[in-house]
Each structure stands twice: as structure tokens, then as C-alpha cells.
From TrEMBL:
InterPro entries per record: Portal_protein_SPP1_Gp6-like
Protein's name in the database: Phage portal protein
Pfam families membership: SPP1_portal
Top-level taxon of origin: Bacteria
Organism name: Sporosarcina limicola
């Protein structure tokens, strides 16, 4: 089913069909879920809704401890995968063109923004276009602004971006060949501009979801419940410490002083008791060991679910670790990074397919054979024993089992392989000229 058939069957050929598409119940529920997660990241947690309670005849507002640990966990996942730039490999001619596009379009920073959107909200979109300066650029469309339109084969047939600015609603409808912009500035929806669409529909990034093949799932859903319980445990424990540590005065036997009940100002005062009577303060003992056990269990479960090494959160002391030991500590983080890499890789390969098409309009052709050689190399931000790494590279080089180019690619001190090779060739430090076939985004 194409877009025309979709509009005819579902919306009876209405010219403003996209309003109903954006306003559908399912789409509004999805957007509400995104807003809920934004509120959580801004610090509006369930613990803040904890009701007041009565204590000693008075209404007490409980302590409400907010832990913003979720931000730290998401930042770790993003930085572990993308702190080092994504490396493009393949035909040298093609890589040179793609690297130029990447630098002028600042795609490295956009990769990080896309990953953050994926981790926080489960989906994100990117539209590739040629900007007013003639550079190939892209626009990141947040999850709460983008509405993909799918047919019954789960194929995207259109895309609608909608947002409100200064009380005015704006809609951008992307189809395979046009980009149409609408607004209700005059009180009714109207078309304000229409452009040719050279790159077709936006790229739709999304994470894995057991319930849907076209909707993503936020990483926050995996550990918000654990954080809620950690906040509740801390808040309740602090309340108990403040309220019940002083204890309740208890008198047994006959009190000889006048008045009804024990005076509230008994602290610092005196009481006259009958022979055999007793007076004491009864208080709850705080079980520190039980608290620590519960909190540690919740915290460890949080680290396990989020695939965060304890050492990266200052939960473990380490020293003098080998390369193998470091890899073992970060093995779970590598598994999570590999999963996130897959989500990014799918969208980024589609991005370069669109960039290749746009380069044709700049009279730059990339053949099928050249494009087939394209690959993406993600270098995880894993701590490493640099001395051990360099010693291994040196040994392989002496055994003539490693080229100079590969040595520099794996060196922890080389950031731009192509530039380094050019400098070495100019200085005459290498016996032969090294052909570089790699680029950094």
C-alpha cells in the first residue's frame, strides 16, 4: 500500500490527513511516554509524590531523596560507544568524499545526539539534505516531534514532524518526492511551502522492542523501577532515623507529680515516681546491616541491568590489572555497546546511501564496487594498558606480521592515521610510501 492508497482508505482523501495521524490515540500515548521520561530525567520522580503522614498528632512531610543516577548510566553507555570517532573504511576515493561530508556536516556530534535520543526515548529520526551553503547536512528530529507513517507491511510511506512554537502549530510532511510545510497561524491549517525531496524519507532509528518491529524501547524502562525502590529505601530510612531515634517516654507504676500525661518538655525536667515505678525511653533500633544489604543488592542489580561495570561507578577498588582483566571487567559493557552499535549502524549505513545519492547532484559519482567496500568501525572507550599494547604492536612489527598502517590504526596515541602517514612520508621515516585506505568520521 502506497501513501495515496493509505490516505484514501484511512482518511477518505482528506487534505489534512496528517492532523489525524499525529492526533491518533497510539501516537499521543507514545508522545506522552516520551514526555514522562523527559520529566524523569529532569528530576520529577515518583518519590516526590510520597504522601504526608500523621506522627504524634501532627502531619509530617516525609523526606524525598531523588537519585539522578539514570543520567549517569545513560551517559556511560553513550560515551563508552561513541567517545572515539566512528572510523570509515573502504575505497580511498569514496572515504575522502565521505570524510569531507562528515566534517562539513558535523556528523560526529550528531551521532552522539542520535544515540542519546535512542537510549532515553527509544527512537529518533534524521533527515539528510543540502543546506543553503551547498553542504550535505542533516536535521535530527526528536522522538516526540516525529510521527512515522507505516503501511501494513511495516514499510514507512511518509513521515510527519509536528511541534508548537509560540502558540502556533507547525507540520512538515515528508514523502518520497516532496517536503510540505503547514501551519495554523491564521486559525486554519494551510500549506505555506513545498520543496522537492532529494533524499526521500527521513532515516528512522529505533531500538529493539518485543511488542513492535517499528517502535523502540527506552533504556530507562529497564532500571527506573530499581531506582524508585532505592529512593524509597533511603527516604524511609532517614525518616526513621530522625523520628524514632529519640524514642517514646514510657512510665510504669504511679506517677506522683500532678497533671495528666507526661509533659512534652520532660527533657531537662524531673519526674516524681512512686516506689517501684520505672521511666524509660523506648526507641526502634536501626538495623544498619539490613539497610546496607538491601541497598547494595538494589545497587548491584542496577549495575547488572544497565550493563555498567562497578569499577566505572567507583564501587570497586582495582590496581595493576592486565589487558585481559580489564576486558573481563568491561565484558558486559561491551555486550551492551555492541547492541547499541547495531541500532546506529543500520541507520548510518542508510545515511551514507542517501549521501551517495546527494553527491550525484554535486557531480561526484561513487561506483557500486566502491560503495560495497564501505564499513563502519566503532572503537569502544575501554580502558587499556597502553604500555602492554605498544609492546605487542612493536613485537608484531619486528616479526613483520603487521603493516605500519595497521600499527598506527591500533596505536592508542594515533588519532588521524592518514595525516600521520603523510607526515611520515614527508619526513622519510618509512621505507616506502604507505597507501592509506581509512578515514575518521
Amino acid at each position: 500500500m502506497n501513501l495515496e492508497q493509505y490516505i484514501k482508505v484511512k482518511y477518505n482523501n482528506k487534505h489534512d490527513w496528517f492532523l489525524e495521524e499525529v492526533g491518533s490515540v497510539a501516537n499521543q500515548q507514545r508522545m506522552a511516554d516520551v514526555e514522562k521520561k523527559k520529566d524523569y530525567l529532569m528530576g520529577y520522580h515518583n518519590i516526590l509524590n510520597l504522601p504526608s503522614f500523621m506522627y504524634n498528632g501532627e502531619s509530617i512531610t516525609p523526606r524525598k531523596i531523588v537519585l539522578n543516577t539514570a543520567k549517569t548510566l545513560l551517559q556511560f553507555q553513550a560515551q563508552f560507544l561513541l567517545k572515539n570517532p566512528v572510523v570509515l573504511t573502504g575505497s580511498e576515493v569514496m572515504i575522502d568524499q565521505f570524510n569531507k561530508v562528515n566534517k562539513l556536516g558535523k556528523f560526529n556530534g550528531k551521532n552522539m545526539r542520535i544515540l542519546n535520543e535512542l537510549l532515553k526515548f527509544g527512537s529518533c529520526s534524521e533527515y539528510i539534505f543540502i543546506n543553503k551553503n551547498g553542504y550535505i547536512d542533516s536535521k535530527i528530529i526528536p522522538s516526540d516531534e516525529g510521527t512515522p507513517v507505516w503501511n501494513h507491511h511495516n514499510e514507512m510511506i511518509a513521515f510527519v514532524q509536528s511541534y508548537v512554537f509560540d502558540g502556533i502549530s507547525y507540520y512538515t510532511v515528508y514523502t518520497d518526492d516532496t517536503v510540505q510545510e503547514y501551519t495554523n497561524e491564521d486559525g486554519s491549517i494551510r500549506l505555506v511551502s513545498q520543496h522537492a525531496n532529494l533524499s526521500e524519507l527521513p532515516i528512522y532509528y529505533h531500538t529493539h522492542n518485543e511488542y513492535s518491529e517499528v517502535e523502540g524501547r527506552s533504556a530507562l524502562d529497564d532500571f527506573v523501577g530499581l531506582l524508585d525502590n532505592m529512593e524509597l529505601l533511603l527516604s524511609k530510612t532517614i525518616d526513621n532515623t530522625y523520628m524514632y531515634s529519640a524514642g517514646i517516654p514510657v512510665v510504669t507504676g504511679q506517677r506522683l507529680t500532678g497533671g495528666a500525661g507526661i509533659p512534652k518538655e520532660v527533657s531537662g525536667g524531673g519526674l516524681s515516681l512512686d516506689d517501684g515505678s520505672t521511666f524509660e525511653f523506648v526507641s526502634n533500633d536501626i538495623d544498619v546491616e539490613a539497610f546496607e544489604t538491601l541497598y547494595d543488592k538494589l545497587n548491584q542489580s542496577l549495575l547488572d541491568v544497565s550493563a555498567t561495570p562497578a569499577v566505572s561507578m567507583n564501587k570497586t577498588d582495582i590496581s595493576n590489572l592486565s589487558e585481559v582483566s580489564i576486558k573481563l571487567l568491561f565484558s558486559l559493557a561491551e555486550v551492551k555497546a555492541s547492541e547499541n552499535e547495531g541500532y546506529l549502524r543500520d541507520g548510518m549505513m542508510e545515511r551514507y546511501d542517501k549521501i551517495r545519492k546527494l553527491l550525484i547532484y554535486k557531480n561526484i559519482l561513487i561506483s557500486d564496487d566502491e560503495y560495497a567496500s564501505l564499513d563502519l568501525l566503532f572503537k569502544y572507550n575501554q580502558p587499556q594498558n597502553e604500555t602492554e599494547t605498544i609492546a605487542n604492536l612493536k613485537t608484531l612489527r619486528e616479526l613483520q606480521a603487521l603493516s605500519m598502517e595497521s600499527l598506527m590504526e591500533h596505536s592508542p596515541y594515533t588519532t588521524d592515521v592518514k595525516q600521520e602517514v603523510s607526515r611520515m612520508n614527508l619526513e622519510g621515516l618509512s621505507g616506502t610510501v604507505i597507501d592509506v585506505d581509512v578515514g575518521v568520521e
